[in-house]
Amino acid sequence: MFTTPSVREEPTDTGNVFAFHIVKEVSAEDMTAMSEYMNAQFDTHDKVSMLLIFDHYDGAETGASLNLEALKARFRSLAKVERYGVVNAPDRAAKLIETMGAIIPVEAKTFDREDDGWSFVGARPKGMTPGA
After folding, report:
1. Alpha carbons 112 and 4: distance in angstroms, whole number
2. Residue 33 falls within a domain, yes or no?
3. Is pLDDT of 55 > 70?
4. Which CATH number belongs to the domain containing residue 88 in this structure?
5. Number of structural domains, the chain?
6. How would DSSP label each residue in the chain?
7. How far apart are CA 126 and CA 63, in angstroms?
8. What are phi and psi of 48, to 5 degrees?
9. How would you label 26-36 residue by residue, b for 16+ Cβ within 10 Å and e otherwise?
């Protein structure tokens, strides 16, 4: 399971769905590690879906996403990510995700409720029964 100081993977009941809780401030090291992790998943799976759940998020370090591994993951995600759901996205990010979801070949949506995000990506947290 993938874990950094600000990103914790939530195991899912579906092998090609990856969910993450984002907390605190995302550092450049967190972003690089997550990008490396997802690039490895892109190598393994034809298509994946992702769910990001923002819990007590404090933003990202300036330039955290401006590294080679993160840029590589972003470009690869256009061909590899089927659905991209975000729960409790910061306002600015929510608007961008909804706009980009209409333009790029990835179905991207934001949600206020975590259950709606899980339904969108077609998975549940591992060990959790539907409707629980």
Report:
1. 24
2. yes
3. yes
4. 3.30.750.24
5. 1
6. --B-SSEEEE-BSSTTEEEEEEEEEEPHHHHHHHHHHHHHHHHH-S-EEEEEEEEEEEEE-TTTT-SHHHHHHHHHHHHHEEEEEEES--HHHHHHHHHHHHHSSSEEEEESSHHHHHHHHT--BTTPPTT-
7. 33
8. -135, 165
9. bbbebbbbbbe
125, amino acid identity: P
Expressed as residue numbers, the domain containing 37 is 7-121
Q: What is the pLDDT of residues 8-33, one digit of tens each?
A: 999 999 999 999 999 988 999 999 99
Would you state the torsion angle of the CA atoms of residues 70, 8, 105, 122, taken in this order, to the nearest 10 degrees? 160
> Phi then psi for 67, rounded to 5 degrees?
-135, 160
Strands 7-10 and 81-87: unpaired
CA-CA-CA-CA torsion sign (82, 92, 64, 59): negative
| Residue with the two structure tokens 């401006």 | 66
* pTM reported for the whole predicted model: 0.88
